[in-house]
User: What shape does this take?
Amino acid sequence: MRTEWIARLDMKEMVVLRANEATTIEEHFAVPGPVAAAQVDRWFPGWHRDNGSSRAKLLDFCDALDVAPGASAVHIETRWLKERVQSALRRQELLVVPALRQGAFGPLLPLITQNVVELPKTRGIYIVYRFDIPFYIGHARANIRACLEIHLPRKRRAFAKVPERIVQFDYYCPRIEQETVADVLRELDPATFGDMGLEPDPVEPPAKCRHRDCQCLAYDDRNSRGSPKIRFVAAMKAVCACGHNYVEHD
Ligand SMILES: [Zn+2]
Ligand SMILES: [Zn+2]
Assistant: This one.
């Protein structure tokens, strides 16, 4: 069974775990070995004065290393503990990984069934990432859970080339009715997301244009000839084949 330890380091919740038990995602986000080793003095303040909480934390780390001194712990020098931990971090036998890894909207979640079944059945925007690099932004007009179910590994189409063990997502569901997709997308960093396309809902049929009695069923932006780009939707400049603004298709 996998074991992990939670430690507060530099005011952040971190997970400490054995490298041979880490997932590919955790390996990716781990503090690099030499950096972690160099931060040990900061992570365990006052270790040289046998500071109680630093010593307790060091003992936890040593547990993770299976070098726990057990009953004789009281006789072990804090310096010895610290040096063991430091060398384990340097050699990356132990990994220190931020407990919460943030996406644009919130914590990054592995795209697996157990994270998807907990989603609300409401409209929303979701981003799918390779580790923390976004590559797909989807818009669910009615049911974000149903949309993401389509993207789960066995049913997945869009991400088939991305190994499932590195795919993560985050999402945002507007709480107020009046909040539009453009409002939500305006909050995203244009340098990272601006040129990505806003992908249509894979579950629902395309939304008809609501402009008067237009009823157009197209989706692509006639300027970029593909899914409307985030920066254009956010600026209300995405225009469909019918000539009406993307918001009419929202
Ligand atoms: Zn129209
Ligand atoms: Zn249209």
Remarks:
- Residues 109-249 form a domain with the GIY-YIG endonuclease fold (CATH 3.40.1440.10).
- The chain has two domains: 4-98, 109-249.
- Strands lie at 4-9, 12-18, 94-98, 109-110, 124-130, 133-140, 167-172, 198-199.
- Residues 209, 216, 218, 240-242, 244, 249 surround zinc ion (ligand 2) (CB under 6 Å).
